[in-house]
Amino acid sequence: MSFFEKLGFTDDYFTVKKGGLSQNEAMLAYIGGSAFQTVVDNPVTAYRQLVQQYAKDLNGKTVDPKIARAEANAVFIKSPVAACLSGLNPRLVGVGLKRVPKFGFLLGISFALGENGDVGMVAAVGASIFSAVFINPIRMIEKQQRAYFKQTGAEKPIMEILRESAAHNFKPLFRGVFPLMGHSLASATTGLVGQPQLEKYIKKELGAKTSLGQFATGLIASSIVSPIYIIMTNPLSRLEVIMQTSAIGGKSISLIEACKEIALDSKTYGMRGIFRGQGIGIAKAIVSLTTFHQGRIFCMEWFKERNQRLGRIPA
């Protein structure tokens, strides 16, 4: 028995299908696109978290969204490099620990349904539900790293976060898992399914009439999908931030308490309170979706060309 067979991978996992890719190559392409996206969008991701986190001051009082943005700006002005790179290490590790389960479920269901890497809604829903418990600890660590920038001006060490979590049997690492399921579902249906389908339509309609290339059509598709995605996920993202940035050693914030906090925010500041970070979220989504899909497509095309050259694609 080979090493991969011991890990549960059969020969079929590495067999090139009619679409030009094996399931293994499709997975590697998704991971490659995700790693590229993670590096590019990290500064925007960090800034958005701080805008949402600073909705409350150090005394626990809700503040105007303008004040929260000013405080986030102050952090980036004071420590621009540290702020831009904050949380990047766990996010890159998460490309493996988060994306492998998510894309594994996504592509596994997709290939089982005969979609050969062109994922559909059923695969997206299944992946969102089953992968949440694997993804949540990484997102918790990422947010905890940035949680004390205002007080210390530096990110919190990962080992310190893990030690604090270990003292509570690692239960804090699973705070916010239910909002994450909803967030992941919206991300999968709009980003992983909707954007590629919309890009194909735009390429079909505009490709013959204009000189727009793949990057341009991808950017247009991402720009259309992103506002829809952010409207769906921004409140869920806010719930995650509230639940995951509280002190690990202190009392955890329940989902109900987090919802009450957002309700109070909306009562005080209206829609601005609910959708803190909305604008930067749309910008992040456009950058994230475009870089992810362009990285993924580049890797997929490279594998397809290699398989074609080596005669591996079945007739």
Describe, in short, the structure shown.
With 315 residues, the chain is mainly alpha-helical. It is built from 14 helices and no strands.
What is the strand and helix layout of this fold?
Elements: H1 3-6, H2 23-53, H3 65-78, H4 80-85, H5 88-97, H6 99-112, H7 121-146, H8 149-152, H9 158-166, H10 177-207, H11 214-244, H12 255-269, H13 271-274, H14 278-309
Question: Could you characterize what this model shows?
Answer:
This protein is an all-alpha fold. The chain has a single domain, classed as Mitochondrial carrier fold (Alpha/alpha barrel), CATH 1.50.40.10. 73% of the residues lie in helices and 0% in strands. α2 packs antiparallel against α14 (278-309), α10 (177-207) packs antiparallel against α11 and α11 (214-244) crosses α14 (278-309). The radius of gyration is 21 Å and the shape is globular.
